[in-house]
Structure formats: structure tokens, C-alpha cells
Amino acid sequence: MIIGGVLLAALATAPFPLLLSLALAAAAAGSAGYLWRRVRERTDATSRAASDHQIELEQYRRRFLALQQEAMQATTALSKMRDGVVMLSSEGKILLMNPAARKLLDLALEQNYIGRPLSEVVRIPDINRGVSRTGGGEGPQVVKVEVNAGETVRPILCHIDQIAPAADASLLMTLRDETESQRVDQIRREFVANISHELKTPLAAIKGYAETVELAIHDDPQAANHFMKQIHTQCQRLERLIADMMQLARAQAGKGNLNFGAVSMSDVVAESLKSYRPIAESKCVELIVGDLSTAQIYSDSEAALTIANNLIGNAIHYTPSGGQVRVSCRPDPDGWTLVVADTGVGIPEAEQERIFERFYRVDKHRGANGGGAGIGLSMVKNLAITMGGHVRVSSQPGRGSTFEVVLPRAEA
Ligand code: ADP
To answer: pLDDT per residue over 116-126, tens digit each?
Structure first.
């Protein structure tokens, strides 16, 4: 109060110029505060906008990366696909073509076909007709064509469909190599034909013999007896064939049908020789068995016996009198190898792969002459593969054959 009173008294007595300067100083101090506040407000807004912009930029960056990744994934998927994919514009120009499509259509992998009319690049009339039809509004088309690729002719199945009529990318064509599925179809057809033939032959023989027996039974009982024996033989053949078929089905059914465990190779071979030694003796084929005592395989014992039976049985069957069959075993990096070697008729080089196919016989007449139906080795191969092993053959016609089956070792 006292200071205020003194100040007022001083102002009342102060000269005019001093009062004016004081008033101006006060006013200046007031506007600077205002300006400072505005500047601060502006700065705050700018930094807020800058950080909003920063966030937006970050969001764009992430979205771009996600899109880039998606595009990369789509490109990788398309490039790794086994089916061919071709995208076409409404005028039939190529917009996209994956490597599989180039391969299936036998086109150069390094050439750029984008933007070129499909009809100019792919000169297969059926495909171009299909594309025109779908493009012309006739709906999806399925076209089967054969493409010559060097020395092979590939069956290709093409599906042509519209994507979106108004869009730039108008048509989508997918191509699938049908070689494998046609092969499977062919195998199935052959299998049915083979099995029918194998069943028909002994059945026809049984029917013929039975009619003869009927006629001969009173007038010629001896002949009737002979034909009865033939009927019996044919019945045995049928029985063997059906048993083989069932074993083959088991071999092809996979691991689920097998009981795995440690199996002694010498037990398996000894069991097999119980059946085959008498046959070898009656044929005067010498059977030599090597030392098998330490070999323990991880296998299904019945499957291992089927393998041994087929290899030993074949070796004896295809070795003429005076020949030899050796059964032995040796360690292999992958397990144990069962070796069945004979000095028999041998197998021509060109047939050595094929003998593992179902119903394949080198000599087509052997089946009728006491050989099997050509199922045995297919069973051996299937079983060996199912048990984690493999089979191989080496042979020289007239000198003999050696079959080797590698099976996994049983853990100690
Ligand atoms: P099969 O029941 O006719 O013997 P396999 O599948 O066991 O059928 O054998 C297929 C074909 O392989 C036989 O028909 C025969 O021509 C040939 N083969 C198999 N083993 C031998 C062998 N040890 N010596 C010569 N040929 C063999």
C-alpha cells in the first residue's frame, strides 16, 4: 500500500515524455505475449500435423510392404505350380503366363510373350478355338490336346473360363499334364484285362476237361481220370493266382497292414527253403546257402517270407537242371541285402525294369507252362518299398540272374 501510494505520487509528478515511454513499453510487452502465444499455438499444430503425417506414412509403408509380400507370394506360387496358368485380355492377348504353362505348351522359357496374341504364340487350333468360344460368350471350355515336346508327346487338358467380362484380364486358361493320370488309367485297364485273361484261361480249360470227363466217364475211365487230374491242376493254378492277387493287394495297401519287428534273415530263408528245397532237388538244381546268422532286419516276417519265396522260387524255376541257386546275405549301408543268384536262363537287358510290373512275363508262354502270372516280382518290389527298402536285378541271358533286396537293419 505504502509502495503503491509512493508510485502514484511519483507518476503524478513525472514529466509527460517519461509517461509516454512507459505507456509504449507496457503496450509492447502486451503484444509480444500475444504473438508468443500464437507462435506457440502454430508450432504445436505443425508438430501435431507432422506426427499425423508420420503415422500415415508408416501406415502406407506397412500396407505397401504387405501388398509387396502378397504379390511376391502370388508370383512364387504361380511360378512353382505344376499346372499351367495363362491370363488373357478380352482381345486374347497374353497378360500372364507362368513357367509351367510355357513348359506344357513347349514354349521357350526365356522369351517374353506378354502382350502378344495367344493365337500367334500357341499354334494349337483346338486351344485357340476354345479361347475364342469362351471369349465369344459360349461359356467355359475343356480342351484335350497333345503337345509335341521334342521326342515326347504330352497329353494336356486345358480349362478355359471367363474371369470378369468387363475387366482387362478377361480369360483364364489352366493347363494340366495328363501323362500320369493316363498312365494310371492305362495300368488299371491293363490290370482288368490281364486278370480277366488269367482267370479265363484256367476256367476255359476246366470247362473243357469237365465236358470231356462227362463223355469219357463210362467208355474210357482212364482218360476220364487223366482229365480229372488236369482239372485239379487248373484249379490249383486258379487258387495260386487268387492267393497272389490277395498278397499283391496286401503289398500295395501300405505299412498299415504290416506288423514290423526284428526278423532274423536266416529264419526267413530256412522257412522258405522248407518249401523250395524239395522242388530244387526234384529239378536237380543245387541250392547253396551262405551264412545268414547275424542278419536281423526290421520287417514284417510274413512279408519278408513272401519276398524270399518269390525270389528263391523264381531262381529255381528259371534255372535248368544241373544249375545252381545261391542264397546269401551281406551288410549294406542301408541295412541288409538278401542276394538270390542263379545260373539260369537270365533276363534280357531291355526287360529287366519291366519284370517288376504286374503281370509282366518275359516269355509270355511261361505262365501256361507252369510259370506264375507275372505278379511275384511286382509283389517283391512293393513289399520292399513299403518296408523302407528296395530291389534290383542284374542278369545276363543264358548265364543267370542276381536279385538283391535291401531291407532296413533292426536296431540292436
Ligand atoms: P512269374 O510268376 O511269371 O514268375 P514274376 O513277377 O515272379 O512272375 O516274374 C516276372 C518275369 O520275370 C517272369 O515271367 C520271368 O520272365 C522273369 N524272371 C523272374 N525271375 C527270374 C529269374 N530268376 N530268371 C529268369 N527270369 C526271371
So the answer is: 999 999 999 99
Task: Render pLDDT for 152-197 as a digit per residue (tens, 0 to 9).
Answer: 899 999 999 998 765 666 899 999 999 989 888 887 888 888 888 8
Q: Which amino acid is it at 113?
A: Y
Residue 25 burial (CB count, 10 A): 10
Closest ligand 1 atom to residue 367 Cα is: 3
C-alpha cell at 384: 520292399
One-character DSSP codes across 394-405: EEETTTEEEEEE
Integer Cα distance of 150 and 106 in angstroms: 9
Cα 347 to ligand 1 centroid, rounded to whole Å? 8
Residue 117 carries which DSSP code? Answer: B
Closest ligand 1 atom to 372 CA: 2
Strand partners, 158: 143, 175
| Cα angle 78, 80, 86; round to 5 | 35
Residue 361 CA to ligand 1 centre (angstroms): 6
For residues 10 and 117, the model is more confident at 117
54: its cell numbers: 508420420
Alpha carbon of 159 to ligand 1 centroid (Å): 44
CA angle 343-392-183, nearest 5°? 120
Please state, in angstroms and rounded to a whole number, the distance separating the CA atoms of residues 158 and 160.
6
Q: Mark out the alpha helices in 265-399 (DSSP H runs).
A: 265-283, 301-317, 376-386
Candidates 314, 306, 236; CA nearest to 271 is: 306
Residue 145's region, left for phi above 0, alpha for psi from -120 to 50, else beta, is beta
